[in-house]
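#struct-help
A.M.: can someone run this one for me? Single chain, 71 residues.
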Amino acid sequence: MREHGLNARKGRNHIPVTGSSHGPGVCPNVLNREFAAERDGEKWISSYQRYAITYLRTAGGRVYLTTVLDL
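D.P.: on it. Structure tokens below:
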């Protein structure tokens, strides 16, 4: 990187977006590891990572991003 005149960008410090001090509740295991679905749109899943919110900056503000999969 030095040869090409490049520098690493330092990340920002974490800024909490809410004032809550409690953790998220635990969701019930409604699938019970039965991932096979008989028809489309019957079982959907999404990923949740604590403290890892993905967002995109746009001219209108932040847009939050997640993936949803139809099993």
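A.M.: thanks! The longest strand covers residues 54-58.
D.P.: also worth noting: The radius of gyration is 19 Å.
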